[in-house]
Every structure is written in structure tokens, then in C-alpha cells.
Amino acid sequence: MNKINMKEKLRLIDNYWEPKIIGEANDSYVKLAKFKDEFVWHVHENEDEMFYIIKGTLTIKFRGKDVVLNEHECIIIPRGVEHMPFAKEEVHVMLIEAKSTLNTGNIENEKTVKDLETI
Amino acid sequence: MNKINMKEKLRLIDNYWEPKIIGEANDSYVKLAKFKDEFVWHVHENEDEMFYIIKGTLTIKFRGKDVVLNEHECIIIPRGVEHMPFAKEEVHVMLIEAKSTLNTGNIENEKTVKDLETI
């Protein structure tokens, strides 16, 4: 049973939009990711998603509304709600997600990551 | 769909060792708590527990080992592992826990909180 240091783990992440698993609890994975620029509009039909901002600013675009998240802020996106993460500058994010969650939800494109690395 | 600001929510918490629910995702609650001094040795037989440190220092005592957690560090305590949180000074903690989790696990005493408030 060891602690997890977010800053150390984040140093191991090079690429944007590629979440890495840092732990699991019950039916969820705890993930870390670096985001920059636009992701892709998508929806998770069966999973809620939690984003917690460790460093930087993340905008979650919803149809008709943007939510801007800063350090020490989080959002829980309920299943079924279409969204698109966007970050003007690099942002460091912790995600709490059901193990079944695919990063691009209902969409498959070049940003889809099916086999997540554990760091 | 609104964001959650941890610092604002923490200002609503007066008492130590009384976790408050700030959101839910899938089968878990996201909770905030302030801890100070000793809790109680306990075990969660069926639930893993995640602690993430927002401010301050938290020691988790295990039988034979202490783990000291600082800001931006977290730990996942697997089900079945006896532990006791301890904080020399006030510490602010986010918890990710299965909805069924009782704060004192297998123990019932004056620190047990059965009906958690949502803030």
C-alpha cells in the first residue's frame, strides 16, 4: 500500500489526450491526463465521468453552455450528456471513471485509446 | 451541470470527521472532509477507499506502517485492510467511496456518521 504522488506521475505523461491509469477503487479507475487544444464531441451512454483539475484551466463545452474549470475545481458529467473538453493551454486532470469508460465515448477516431497504460 | 469548487465547499464544513457528499458518479460518492487528531482503527470489508489531499498532511496508520500524505498525493486503501487516519494539524481531504461505505467501517462509535449531508 503506497501513496500516489500526482506530480511525479504526471511527469511520466508525454502525450495529450492519452489518460493513464494510476489506481483502481471499487468499479472505477483513477486516471491522470494532460489535455491541450480540442478533443472531440462525444457522449458516454452508460457512465458518469468526473474531472478534477490539478493544474491549469479546462473548458468543458456542452451544447449551449461552456463550463470553465480551474485548479481545485471538478465536474461530474452525467451519462448521456454530450460534451467536448477544450484547453487553450496544457492542463493536468485527474479522472475518476467507471472501468468500462472509453475516452471518446460513442466516437472512434484517432484520439480513441482502447488499452490504457498503468503508470 | 455545474462545476464544484472544493475551497468553497470546504468553507461549509465545520466539524472534523464528518464527510459531506459533494457529488456522485456511477456507484461512488465524492465527499469532502476536514480531519484533525485521531480517528479510529477500522476496516471496510467490502469497499476500497480513496483519499486525496487538498490541503495539509494526513497520516494513514496501518498495522506496522504509516503512510504520510501531502497535498496532491492520494492513496487507495483496498477493502479488508485495517487503518486509522491521523492528522496532527487540520487537513482537507477529498474521498471517493462506494455509496455503501460507512466512515468507521466495521466499528460503531461516537464518530460514526450514518446519514451524510450533501453540500
Keywords:
8 strands; 119 residues; globular; 48% strand; homodimer; seven-stranded antiparallel beta sheet; mainly beta
In words, what does this structure look like?
2 copies of one chain form a homodimer. In chain A, a hairpin with a 2-residue loop joins β2 (about 20-25) and β3 (about 30-40). Chain A is mainly beta and about 120 residues long. In chain A, about 5% of the residues lie in helices and about 50% in strands. The model of chain A has no long low-confidence stretch (mean pLDDT about 95). Chain A is built from 1 helix and 8 strands; from the N terminus they run βαβββββββ. Chain A has one helix at about 5-10; strands at about 5, 20-25, 30-40, 50-55, 60, 65-70, 75, 85-100. The radius of gyration of chain A is 13 Å and the shape is globular. In chain A, strands 2, 3, 4, 5, 6, 7 and 8 form a 7-stranded antiparallel sheet that branches. The interface of A and B includes residues 49 and 94 of A. β7 (about 75) of chain A pairs antiparallel with β1 of chain B, so a sheet runs across the interface.
